[in-house]
Description:
Structural class: alpha/beta
Distance between the termini: 38 Å
Number of strands: 13
CATH class: Alpha Beta
Amino acid sequence: MLDQLYPLARRALFALDAERAHHWSLVGLRLAERLGILEGLAGHPPTGKPVRCMGLTFPNALGLAAGLDKEGNCIDAFGRLGFGAIEIGTITPRPQPGNPKPRLFRLKEHEGIINRMGFNNPGIEQGVRNVHSAKSYQGIVGFNIGKNKDTPNENATEDYLIGLRAAWPVADYIAVNLSSPNTPGLRDLQAADSTAALLERLKQEQESLRASTGRQVPIALKVAPDLTDDHIAALSRVFLDGGLDGLIATNTTIERQAVATHPHGAEAGGLSGAPLTSRSTEVIAAFHAELGQRIPIIGVGGVMSGQDALAKISAGATLIQIYTAFIYRGPGLIVDILDSLNNSLVASSTE
């Protein structure tokens, strides 16, 4: 029923400013879940084959990418729809309002979105409380962490360590965002030497937390699609040498060729959705050629259909995430992807 209602809901939401529509969509989902309405509307959630990745068992291979549930207060609601994993955030140590509005733009003709949100979030303490408050979701929760905008790059490691320590008790895995184009200078941390230094400190802290808490939480890094082949090769060596647990490929792109004629095509920010489909798959394939099965890849970027998900699996991804396509296609996309994966994906074990 929810899938049948979504075209009507989308028509109403698309009549609103994109960020306002985002806000009210989350409010509606959260309210429907708390009142017990969402369960009736969604029916029995689609299922998929369990997948082992990063030492964790994911109920199915489809996850919600970071950015949709920035605060982590809709985990139970999204869980009702069938996601095997929900990645919240990006969350920074201190609350921050993000960039000035308007900062979110639909490119409907291209099924794309440009955002320059700027890590607007309630801060790590509230983010952790929100995850604690999730009651019904039984899947995997990823906690995406970043640095505050006013933290200089030379002090960025401390921000990430604050996030790692705080998220550790509530996260199943922790994603480190080095690749948003909307925090000035953030992508400079993707330079091989900077990434190597950061990864070394994160792995040291991971081992310390494992020893003190008795639980292991894998660390994944999220990278940009705007990387050269040489950069991919250099980062792959860093990841292998540093013992990275997982790679999320990719974030949004600053490339605009595919949307150059659109009225919003020149807006600053990161472009996601269908214009990113091919490039993100190429980057997954390039990293997989370097990493093989030693570091699993979570594939995200322009997954608009079950066939797009299969293409990313074929390119080397172990898991899939969606965001922009969910806005354009609605809950039916979850069924489409999981059906496609169920029919052709043999669940594999990746430690």
